[in-house]
# Entry
Amino acid sequence: MAGVGDDVSLIFVYGTLKRGFYNHRLIEELIRTGDSAYVGAFTTVEAFPLVCGPHGIPYLINLPGSGHRVRGELYSVSSGLGRGRLDQLEGVEQGHYQRLPLAVEGEMRAEAYFAHEGFGEALWKRCGEVGLSEYSVEMGNKYVSREDRPPHSTFIQDINNFISHSN
# Structure
């Protein structure tokens, strides 16, 4: 079991990986295999921008002090298989997200998936520098899964198109 004392990472999730959202099924699978455990509901210590981009995808942006303190969930995740599966989902190697440290209530150190630095700040500006404190069920209902997105578009193309076109 991926308990807090084992070789684990604490991962703060704020969007589609939360309970009741589309990608939580991956967390459920990791819990079943002993590669993850729910720690609890937490809020970030610092404020960060949280925005919705194309396809209803949530992005936490690494601009500490901007936005709001963000509410989410904390999971202990095995540092091998569990974290590897999450990195794969979040497209870490493809430059979609970056797993970076942050602090949550109780001064616990964790990691979260932030929008890649190559587009994060531009995404924040495109969203009018107005952030959210929580990714809601209503927002989650607008999420479009990968298999339901246009077949010939890529993640980076979609981000660049979103950023370059104003509301």
User: Anything to note?
Assistant: The mean pLDDT is 93. The longest strand covers residues 36-48.
